[in-house]
Write a structure and sequence with these properties.
The chain has 10 helices and 13 strands. With 334 residues, the chain is an alpha/beta fold. It folds into 2 domains: 172 residues, Thiolase/Chalcone synthase (Peroxisomal Thiolase, Chain A, domain 1, 3-Layer(aba) Sandwich); 148 residues, Thiolase/Chalcone synthase (Peroxisomal Thiolase, Chain A, domain 1, 3-Layer(aba) Sandwich). Helix 3 crosses helix 4 and helix 7 runs parallel beside helix 8. The chain is globular, with a radius of gyration of 19 Å. Bound molecules: oxa(dethia)-CoA.
Length: 334
């Protein structure tokens, strides 16, 4: 039996920082409101000529290097993004594969918003366990600034850009195996968080991006309540079904949307502050990139060690959600 192991992590954060003080000048908001309601102090914004694929490539280069594999060993790439280089085709994954020089590997994008990385992880696990692939590169990359309306204070204070990537490899060692992944969705909540236009369900002959509805819209408070409920239920279920006490989790890595959501879920699981990974303060919400960026943070700070058990928990537009119990099998940085 082949198992899937989480072999390595990498991330990329664009240089430009957008602070709460700068947003105070752009919309009717304040550093105090943003900090108190979300925990966010700043977010990073990609350069005008920097695409989602460019950020994905930088994150992936690190993940491949840290995996100890050669590029030729990678036999598939999945990119989770809601801000692809091109909305219909080609996929951002194919562009990343070519920029990386990965050859003619199978490459595709998935659309599961902030849950994208966990969905990609579950697809990678299935391909590896079935024996179809051996080393899969998964990438969560977002240029959310390209679909953010900087006149809408309900969303523009939240989102940032960045990318994270991981290599998932086949192993025969059961101790290294990703233990379990739960995923779900409910399209009846589609209107809570959406980019209304640009798809086949909409007229898109108007070119005014705002009028044409090309920006993200969110019913923040309703989304908040469903997020807390769903994220908590999801992790309680995966822990119970696998007979794992929350005290055994080394790192709880939730989607970084809002400090208050993370705190509520962490409290429900009776997790200590040391177990909960928090990056929302410096990156904001980077959707599909948020979980791998957070994993990379604990990796680069030396907190993530070989054998540590991670509990991932994501929630996003769709609505979609997912959780995963993942031992880290890569070499620690320190
Ligand atoms: O990543 C995918 C999933 N996304 C999420 O999980 C995000 C979930 N939602 C949230 O994080 C929060 O709902 C927000 C941070 C978006 C909003 O926080 P909230 O505590 O739910 O605020 P609210 O929407 O209930 O608004 C409270 C007040 C309103 O004013 P009134 O009606 O009480 O006078 C808003 O108009 O705060 C106002 N407000 C703001 N004030 C200053 C909304 N946005 C802002 C702002 N600055 N940026």
């Amino acid at each position: 039996m082949m198992y899937a192991a989480f072999r390595s992590i990498g991330a990329y954060v664009p240089a430009k920082i957008l602070t709460n003080a700068e947003l105070e000048v752009m919309v009717d908001t304040s550093d105090e409101w943003i900090t108190k309601r979300t925990g966010i102090k700043e977010r990073h914004i990609a350069a005008a000529d920097e695409r989602t694929s460019d950020m994905g490539v930088k994150a992936a280069e690190l993940a491949i290097k840290r995996s100890g594999l050669a590029k030729e060993d990678i036999d598939m790439i999945i990119c989770a993004t809601i801000s692809p280089d091109y909305f219909c085709m080609p996929s951002t994954a194919t562009i990343i594969a070519t920029k990386l020089g990965l050859g003619k590997v199978m490459a595709f994008d998935i659309s599961a918003a902030c849950t994208g990385f966990v969905y990609a992880l579950s697809i990678a696990k299935a391909f590896i366990e079935s024996g179809m692939k051996k080393n899969i590169l998964i990438v969560g990359a977002e240029k959310l600034s390209a679909i953010t309306d900087y006149t809408d204070r309900g969303t523009c204070i939240l989102f940032g850009d960045g990318a994270g990537s991981a290599v998932i490899s086949a192993t025969e060692d059961k101790n290294e195996a990703i233990i379990d992944i739960h995923t779900g969705s409910d399209g009846s909540f589609a209107d809570l968080l959406m980019t209304p236009n640009g798809g086949s369900g909409s007229a898109h002959d108007e070119l005014d991006r705002e009028a044409a509805g090309c920006y993200m819209r969110m019913k923040g408070n309703e989304t908040f309540k469903v997020a807390v409920r769903t994220l908590t239920a999801d992790v309680v279920e995966i822990l119970e079904q696998n007979n794992i006490e929350s005290s055994k989790i080394t790192h709880f890595v939730p989607h970084q949307a809002n400090y208050r959501i993370i705190k509520a879920v962490g409290d429900a699981l009776e997790l200590s502050d040391e177990q909960v990974v928090l990056t929302v303060e410096k990156y904001g919400n980077t959707s599909g990139a948020s979980i791998p960026m957070a994993i990379n943070d604990i990796y680069e700070s030396g907190k993530l060690q070989q054998g540590d058990l991670m509990l991932l928990d994501a929630f996003g537009g769709g609505l979609t959600w997912g959780s995963a119990l993942v031992p880290f099998t890569g070499k620690a940085i320190h």
